[in-house]
Design goal:
Helix 2 runs antiparallel to helix 5, helix 3 packs antiparallel against helix 5 and helix 5 runs antiparallel to helix 6. With 265 residues, the protein is mainly alpha-helical.
Length: 265
């Protein structure tokens, strides 16, 4: 794959971000294996170690939604110091950007999947589960990971879109760029909220829903993050998957077009 243009671009991203990814994997280990124990012992939390681990794992999983955006921004910041690649490359802007986006998403998903594997082992050991309960817990955990993965991809595309719009606006009017982008973000958020209130996402969730298990490992005390990610136990549906993929593709294309105006015009 490295012999192809896109494969070469992905390899370049690996060179740029490999140490950051290694650091994040290390954080995965520390947060899931050590943080619950240290929190319970030194913070004096009355919950059991199992409940404390559940809360910390849920929080860590939720933060992974933004991990793709974070890695993408780190990569962009490093290469914005030197615009020669963007200015003189014969390849389409969407290909150059696409490699960055794809690698950031793959790296973030790798961290999420590793975290889920580690969390399942830790929860199995300290939870004193039977094999039947363990299997139900694994299916529930997979449901959460799948739901978060879709949100992770979508959030990375949203981050790319707003970043590219900001760069274009900033190149035209530096003084007003931040307030203008903030206003644009608020308008977009209100529009998205109107879609949610209208019931669009509830309707999309009914189109070929995927529910891996009827069992639930959530409860209001330890797993309120998970309840929001997997409403009614539905990991995702074909309807919302297609919807988010289409919107993500549109954001990638529009963001690439905006960014091309910034670096090549």
């Amino acid at each position: 794959m490295r012999n192809t243009v896109f494969g070469g671009l992905l390899h370049k991203e690996w060179i740029v971000l490999k140490w950051l990814l290694a650091l994040i994997i290390l954080l995965d280990v520390v947060v899931i294996t050590l943080a619950p124990l240290l929190t319970k012992n030194f913070a004096g939390i009355p919950d059991t170690l199992y409940d404390t681990t559940h809360i910390i794992v849920g929080t860590w999983f939720a933060l992974h939604i933004f991990s793709g955006v974070f890695m993408l921004f780190v990569s962009l910041k490093k290469e914005m110091k030197n615009l020669e690649m963007w200015l003189h490359s014969p390849h389409p802007m969407v290909q150059l950007v696409g490699a960055k986006v794809v690698f950031a998403i793959l790296a973030a998903l790798a961290s999420l999947f590793f975290s889920s594997l580690l969390a399942s082992i830790v929860l199995y050991v300290i939870g004193d589960w039977t094999m039947e309960l363990a299997w139900s817990g694994v299916l529930a955990l997979i449901s959460v990971v799948l739901a978060i993965s879709i949100k992770l991809v979508f959030m990375t595309m949203v981050g790319w879109f707003f970043w590219s719009v900001y760069k274009v606006v900033n190149s035209r009017t530096q003084f007003f760029s931040v307030p203008l982008i903030f206003i644009f973000f608020i308008i977009t958020f209100v529009f998205w909220e109107q879609l949610r209130v209208s019931g669009l996402f509830d309707w999309l969730r009914t189109i070929v829903p995927v529910r891996l298990t009827n069992e639930s490992f959530y409860n209001e005390h330890t797993s309120y993050f998970f309840m929001g990610f997997v409403p009614n136990g539905i990991a995702f549906s074909l309807g919302n998957l297609v919807f988010y993929l289409i919107i993500s593709f549109v954001l990638l294309m529009i963001g690439s077009a905006f960014f091309e105006k910034k670096v090549r015009v």
